[in-house]
Specification:
By secondary structure, this protein is an alpha/beta fold. The chain has helices spanning about 10-15, 30-35, 40-50, 65-75, 90-100, 110-120, 130-135, 140-155, 170-175, 185-190, 195-210, and strands spanning about 1-5, 25, 55, 80-85, 105-110, 125-130, 160, 180-185. It has an eight-stranded parallel beta barrel, surrounded by six helices. Helix 5 (about 90-100) links the parallel strand 4 (about 80-85) and strand 5 (about 105-110). The chain binds SN-glycerol-3-phosphate (G3P).
Length: about 220
């Protein structure tokens, strides 16, 4: 499963890129607002930092402007993925951009039939929001499992990008359910390394090593 980072904070991305484990980045209007950056500048910088797919979200509510925004964002760098909302207009623009060869990430997906429509519209990625479904008293992971079955039933190539992940358990369950990618806030990515037995085990090894009086180099 590929791991994307869900942030527009370039400083955080620089640190995480150094791990060699980051395959891409997703942003959204809220994350751009939080960063305080101009979208085009932030996306250009992120695209130069991380060679994988970088999602940049278009925001217009009419077809022509949404399409123009998508084309504008796609021109920022070759690794831009245009992010579009799962609305009738969003999916029309998804079809138009996909037909032009621009990869699209359809976002704000909360049902399996929405994901079916996005695949039919040629989306490269579908972003089901696990955490927000859980917050709403539903089972976010069930949605990932349902989309996996539907896409496999019909051979859709749209990739499932598990979004709104809040915990390492979400990441484990998305991987078990066959999500192609997951996008994680930096804190969730960092939590993937953690296990108390790793920390305790390392502490014990280091204590014993000290007793040997050796050094490897
Ligand atoms: O980028 C989309 C998604 O990951 C948002 O997550 O935590 O705002 O529900 P969240």
């Amino acid at each position: 499963m590929r791991i994307f980072i869900d942030t527009a904070e370039v400083a955080d991305l620089k640190v995480l890129a150094a791990t060699g484990l980051v395959d891409g980045v997703t942003t959204n209007p809220s994350l751009i607002a939080k960063s305080g950056r101009k979208i085009a500048e932030a996306i250009e910088e992120i695209c130069a930092l991380i060679p994988g797919p970088i999602s940049a979200e278009a925001v217009a509510s009419d077809y022509d402007t949404l399409l123009a925004e998508g084309r504008f964002l796609a021109k920022i760098a070759p690794n831009v993925v245009v992010k579009l909302p799962l609305t009738p207009i969003g999916l029309r623009v998804c079809k138009a951009l996909s037909d032009e060869g621009t990869p699209v990430n359809v976002t704000l997906c909360f049902s399996a039939v929405q994901a079916l429509l996005a695949a039919k519209a040629g989306a490269t990625y579908i972003s089901p929001f696990i955490g927000r479904l859980d917050d709403n008293g539903q089972d976010g992971m069930e949605l990932i499992r349902d989309i996996r079955v539907i896409y496999d039933n019909y051979g859709f190539e749209t990739q499932i990008l598990a979004a709104s992940a809040r915990t390492a358990i979400h990441v484990r369950d998305a991987a078990l359910a066959g999500a192609d990618c997951a996008t994680l806030p930096p804190a969730v990515f960092n939590a993937l390394y953690k296990h108390v037995l790793t920390d305790l085990g390392l502490e014990a090894f280091m204590k014993d090593w000290e007793k040997t009086g050796q050094s490897i180099l």
